[in-house]
C-alpha cells in the first residue's frame, strides 16, 4: 500500500499503538493489519477478531487460540519466538486484538513448496540453512522449557515456524495450543496438535511434558 494512502483507523486505549487501514492478511474470522508502536517507533502486526460473529465451533476455536497465544507470549522475550506487545478487548466494537511484532516472513511449509517448485529438488533448501534454523528452533524450545512453570508448545510444525524474508532467522509462532505445566501434572487429556507431528511415545503412553516438542 502507498504510504500516502495509509490511514490510522484505531488507537489502543493507552495511546501507544495505532492500527492502519492496511490489511496484511484477511480471513473469515481473523484479520491482520499493519500497526505502529509509538514507544518503540516500529511497525507492528495488529491481529483482530470480531467475536460478535464467533458463534460456530471454528470461530470459537480461533478466538480461543488467539487469546491463549497472547496470554503465553505476553510474558516471553526471546529472539527465536514471535514477540507479543499487548492484547486489547473492545466491548463496543466487539473485537479482540493482539499486537505482535511485524516479522516479514513466510512459513517454513510455504517456503519448502516455493523452493521445491523453483529448484526441482525434494526440499530445495540448503543444508547449512536447515542446520542454522534447527539450532534457532532448539534454542527457542530450550527457553520455553526453562520457564517456571515450563511452557509446552504442543503444535510445532512447518506452518508455525516462520522464516525471515532474509532467510537467516526463524521464529516460533502458533502458540494457540501452548500451556504452562506444573511438573508431574502432564495428563493424556492434555495431548493436542497434529498427529503427523506427534511422538511415538504418545501412542505407547510412555511420554512426559517435553516429548512432543522434542520429536516435532
Descriptive account of the structure:
The protein has helices at 57-73, 108-119, 127-145, 200-204, 211-215, and strands spanning 8-11, 17-26, 30-37, 42-50, 84-90, 95-101, 105-107, 150-152, 161-164, 170-172, 179-181. With 216 residues, the chain is of the alpha+beta class. The protein folds into two domains: 6-99, Phosphorylase Kinase, domain 1, CATH 3.30.200.20; 103-210, Transferase(Phosphotransferase) domain 1 (Transferase(Phosphotransferase), domain 1). Strands 1-2-3-4-6-5 form a six-stranded antiparallel β-sheet, covered by helices on one side. The longest helix is centred in the middle third of the chain and has 19 residues, at 127-145. The N and C termini lie far apart (37 Å). The relative contact order is 0.12. Mean pLDDT is 80; it is low at 187-191.
Key structural traits:
11 strands; Phosphorylase Kinase, domain 1; three-stranded antiparallel β-sheet; six-stranded antiparallel β-sheet; alpha+beta; 5 helices; 216 residues; Transferase(Phosphotransferase), domain 1; 2 domains
Amino acid at each position: 500500500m502507498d504510504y500516502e494512502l495509509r490511514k490510522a483507523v484505531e488507537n489502543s486505549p493507552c495511546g501507544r499503538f495505532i492500527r492502519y487501514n492496511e490489511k496484511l492478511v484477511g480471513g473469515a474470522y481473523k484479520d491482520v493489519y499493519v500497526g505502529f508502536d509509538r514507544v518503540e517507533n516500529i511497525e507492528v502486526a495488529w491481529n483482530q477478531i470480531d467475536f460478535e460473529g464467533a458463534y460456530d465451533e471454528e470461530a470459537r476455536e480461533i478466538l480461543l487460540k488467539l487469546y491463549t497465544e497472547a496470554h503465553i507470549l505476553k510474558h516471553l522475550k526471546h529472539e527465536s519466538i514471535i514477540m507479543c506487545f499487548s492484547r486489547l478487548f473492545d466491548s463496543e466494537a466487539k473485537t479482540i486484538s493482539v499486537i505482535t511484532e511485524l516479522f516479514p516472513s513466510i512459513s517454513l511449509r510455504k517456503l519448502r513448496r516455493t523452493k521445491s517448485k523453483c529448484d526441482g529438488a525434494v526440499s530445495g533448501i540448503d543444508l547449512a540453512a536447515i542446520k542454522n534454523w534447527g539450532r534457532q528452533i532448539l534454542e527457542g524450545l530450550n527457553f520455553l522449557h526453562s520457564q517456571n512453570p515450563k511452557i509446552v508448545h504442543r503444535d510445532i510444525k512447518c506452518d508455525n515456524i516462520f522464516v525471515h524474508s532474509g532467510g537467516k532467522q526463524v521464529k516460533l509462532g502458533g502458540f494457540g495450543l501452548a500451556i504452562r505445566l506444573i511438573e508431574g501434572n502432564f495428563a493424556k487429556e492434555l495431548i493436542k496438535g497434529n498427529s503427523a507431528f506427534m511422538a511415538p511415545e504418545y501412542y505407547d503412553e510412555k511420554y512426559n511434558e517435553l516429548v512432543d516438542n522434542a520429536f516435532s
